[in-house]
Amino acid sequence: MEYSYGNPSYVDHVMRYVGITFRGGTNPNFNNMEAWITKNPYAKTGLYGQCTWFAWGRFYELYGYDPSFTGNGWDYVDELLKAHPDKFERSTTPKAGAVFSGIGKNHVGIVLKVDGNNITIQDGNYDGITNTFEDAKKDWQTNTYTLDYYGSRMGGIVFANPK
Asked: Between the chain's N and C termini, which has fewer beta carbons within 10 Å?
């Protein structure tokens, strides 16, 4: 199939290869107190450094509103789809800006970029513990994996893709 300007699938095709532009940059802005402390429900319960805390904060920075996440990492996609069905759709194929949930592993993160079968993600909780805010600010990474590898590492993976 040819993807050219005017083709209804053109934008979706191109966006598979374009990294998402984050409001305020591609790295977390831990000075954004709303995202990381005052509005983040995981911060309110002291869960700094958890993948859920990190994904909530990055989502808030990216989209500028509360994603309505309150559960575990593997619940994030379902919670996002329930709260914002007009803005996100469930998929097994990611788009830049998607939220992912591990199916077999309780983990969540954000997809920054999709390039063929490679996905670049940001997620947190690499040390596996709840941290102080100061330590949590260092416990996240940006990594690129093949979708097949990361899906197998998560015991399956599902995405809430932006519409």
From this structure: N
Burial of 80 by CB count in 10 Å (0-12 exposed, 13-18 middle, 19+ buried)? buried
Could you read off the pLDDT of 62-97 as tens digits, one per residue? 999 999 989 999 999 999 999 999 999 999 999 999
Burial grade of 97 (CB within 10 A; 0-12, 13-18, 19 or more): buried
**Burial zone of 25 (CB within 10 Å; 0-12 exposed, 13-18 middle, 19+ buried):** exposed
Give residue for tokens 């591609």. Answer: 26
Closest CA to 83 of 66, 68, 73: 68
- Taking the CB of residue 101, how many other CB atoms lie within 10 A of it? 27
For 19-59, the pLDDT digits (tens) are 444 444 589 999 999 999 999 999 999 999 999 999 999 99
CA–CA distance, 25 with 119 (Å, rounded to integer):
18
Q: For residues 86 and 35, what is the distance between their CA atoms, to the nearest angstrom?
A: 22
